[in-house]
Amino acid sequence: MEIDEVISFLKRHAPFDAQSADHIASLARKIEVRYFPRGTVIIDVGKENRALSIVRSGAVELRLGGTDLNHRLGEGGVFGYLSLLHHELTRNKVIALEDCLIYQLPKEDFLKWLKHHESLRIFFAKDDAERLHRAVEGLHRTENGYGDAGMIAVKLETLLRRKDVVTASPNDTIRDAAKRMAQADVSTLPITHQGKLVGIMTDKDLRRRVLGQEIPLDEPVSSVMTPDPITMTLDDGLLSAMLVMSQKNIHHFPIVDSANQIVGVISSSDLLNRFGMNALQVVAEIKAAPDAATVAIAAQRVGAVLTNLIESGVDADHIARFVSNIGETTHRQLLKLAEDQLGPPPVPYALVVFGSLARQEQAGGSDQDNGFVLDDRYNPAEHAPYFEQLATLLCDGLNSAGYIYCPGDIMATNEKWRQPLAVWKDRYRNWIEKPDPENVLNTTIFFDMRCVAGEEGLVDILRAQIFEWSSANRIFLSFIARAASNTKVPLGFFRNFLLQHDEKEGHVLDLKHQAIAPVVDIARVYALALGLADVNSKERLKMAVERGSLGPEEASNLIDCFEFIHSVRFRHQSNQIKRGEPLTNNLSPTSLSRFEREHLKDAFRIIRNHMDRISRTYAGGIQ
Amino acid sequence: MKLDWQNWFYKKHFAQHWERAKKAAKSTPMDHYYDALLPEDMLLDDTPLVALDFESDGLKKDAQLLEAGWVRIIDRAVKLKTAQQLRIQAGSRLQEAAVIIHRITDDAAAKGQQEADVLALLLETLKGSAIVAHGAAVEHAFLNTACLRNFGVPFVGRFICTMHLEKRWFPKQRTADGLRLGKLRAQYGLPSYRAHDGLTDAIACGELFLAQCARRKVENLLLKDVLMKG
């Protein structure tokens, strides 16, 4: 006898889903079902816990020590395992947020189960950090499938442009078949009989076998087609397809399904387009572009590069660097073309970028944030028109290339951000020495700054000056730290209706502001406190470890979080690209896979803990 | 004290029925069952409960029992360890309509056990326990008929009807199907289950009972506060 309802529920939820059918059935038999109306306490703090709990329906809230909101769980959520694993008294108070039906697995059954299934330890691993780390590792393995073989994992299915396949039957005349090819503008015509593929006729066949041998056009297609052509299936990989093409010297082949029904035709150019769409090629094209329009065309391919990299199993950090590299090259080339047009600059200057491009953490859909740091010999009456025109050419070019105008007008076209070094210094000094709590959030972006073209020396001087001021100024640091620790990290985004209760978190998860920005903020606090020259968040965290301000363990946990969130973001953007939608950083919690959901929750907890730490270390005294 | 009369009658009638049945059960397989009379003023939390559901090929007196599903409720928890689901061998061809509802075919039913064997097992479980069912009058009638048919002894026991309880504790205007198990469960935020499998229905009914008692918010309920009377 099997308890079907319980079994089918367990099968849908981790970690039970990974268990064998027999095992799930036997676990189901050990469960005790309890009901808790909304507002009742399911587990209290400091008590002995006797069972592992699973939310069958409803939602619960875990409060650390009974007060601090720690976690919310919905259907399928599992709680109460830490106290069981470590034979401790409970540390969380668990309250029913809604009427809840809870499945409980008695302690002894849980421990017995765990003993025999080592893999479960991962799920119930003491910290969120370890679980996340394994998830990030696993991500690349599953993405890639073959170690680091890259392209090999790409299936033909992703290359096939889905449209109706034009076909002919073997008894059609050559004339009709040729007309059909012309009308549909195809160079390959699959010949089918009763839905099954029996042959293929190409442009080349028409030339060689029909015109070349003067075969009458009224003859049936079957007399000139290539019978039983080489076919591939949607499941075949891109590399094996390329291999077959080069070995057999063919340029097209039909794709069939398991019933030998034709589903499409793939040409060698389809494969080459795909293969050629890599970051390095796009960068080379941008560098070689003779004008801004050509730069724009090449730079717009960043979307294809992104999807391509994701499907090749490249990790998020590298993807961000590739994408940033394309952005940087676009800036540089546009500036070079503008200088070619306007002549050499009258005084030295540097093009600086701010924000994600400066940190080399750019994703798709970024706007532009830039400015000119001019040499102090700059004389507005004389030189202003040149730099104004230069800025216009640059920013217009960037906008055409997909880096839209900055909504906050942080662009070199704005006179405010086109100033001599001395003015920049004053401005930073002002931000640092007279921090304004209202304004501090708006200035953080300027502390992620990098020179991408021109006189790097100007930016080096500026940066050295900034760090000298910032690292010595506790009050400024405390403002920055406080701003960083005030970001609302979502903990309760796992169910739509809970989101509705929470006005601040809204319906969507804004990956950029709610997940990525907090880590960036944390890394920046360390950079400013320690005077780190690095702009990249990961590098900043690593440097903070070297300088002894951050434990190696903590840093690697944060880096894992960052990597994981970025990978979710890139995958989300890759899907948007495939659907032809504009790129955003907002995603609906329902679009997350269970895997992503679980680990995002871990990531958010790690981030939140670290925000508390930052606030304790640097924001002490200011409330 | 308006329920006193009702209680008095119930008490008197129950005692009479119980004694009469107990006598009739002497030296039958049901003898044992009548050893343990459950006192009605015992704390509900201390009362052993069994959620029960029968599947049959109809609701008439001569309906065939096809399946019995049950599970114990102890300490305000449905204990799946105690879950049982037994197929009962059909004596005659199944009536078609019921088969469609329960998805039990002749072949599957034929694999079941003898009705008397299933009853013996069930009576063992029910001894000293109160029975929780949704529409308990039906379960009562089935049990009674089956016991008479197999052992010539009527069935007397303590029944808790979740449908009754809902009407009594939470009276309000309802639609015609407003008291159906699935509808009520939804009101308590309980998940929806595939209906009409003996065990699933027994579990579903047990969970509903837990939810009803939780929402009632009365401390120290007694068995008699929840019993179906008359």
Tell me what the structure shows.
The complex is a heterodimer of chains A (623) and B (230). Chain A is of the alpha+beta class and 623 residues long. In chain A, 49% of the residues lie in helices and 15% in strands. In chain A, strands 1-8-3-6 form a four-stranded antiparallel beta sheet. In chain A, helix 20 packs antiparallel against helix 25 (594-618) and helix 23 runs antiparallel to helix 24. The model of chain A is unreliable at 140-152 and 494-505 (pLDDT under 50). With 230 residues, chain B is an alpha/beta fold. Chain B has a single domain (3-226), classed as 2-Layer Sandwich (Nucleotidyltransferase, domain 5). Chain B contains nine helices and five strands. Chain B has helices spanning 3-24, 96-102, 106-110, 115-126, 136-151, 162-169, 181-187, 198-216, 223-226; strands at residues 49-56, 65-74, 77-87, 130-133, 159-161. Chain B has a five-stranded mixed beta sheet with strand order 3-2-1-4-5, sandwiched between helices. In chain B, helix 5 (136-151) links the parallel strand 4 (130-133) and strand 5. In chain B, helix 6 (162-169) packs parallel to helix 8 and helix 7 packs across helix 8. Chain B is globular and about 45 Å long. Classes of the chains: A alpha+beta (623), B alpha/beta (230).
CATH 4th-level superfamily of the domain at 278-424 in chain A: Beta Polymerase, domain 2
Quaternary arrangement of the chains shown? Answer: heterodimer
CATH architecture descriptor of chain B: 2-Layer Sandwich
What does the main sheet of chain B amount to?
A: 5 strands, mixed
Q: Helix count of chain A?
A: 25
Beta-strand content of chain B: 15-25%
Give the percentage of residues in beta strands of chain A.
5-15%
**CATH H level, superfamily name of chain B:** Ribonuclease H-like superfamily/Ribonuclease H
Cα-atom Rg of chain A, whole angstroms? Answer: 30 Å
Helix/strand structural class of chain A: alpha+beta
Q: Biggest sheet of chain A, strands in spatial order?
A: 1-8-3-6
Tally of helical segments of chain B:
9
Largest sheet of chain A: 4 strands, antiparallel
Main interface: chain pair and counts: A-B, 25 and 25 residues
Q: What do the pLDDT scores of chain A average to? A: 82
- The dominant shape of chain B is globular
- Structural class of the secondary structure composition of chain B? alpha/beta
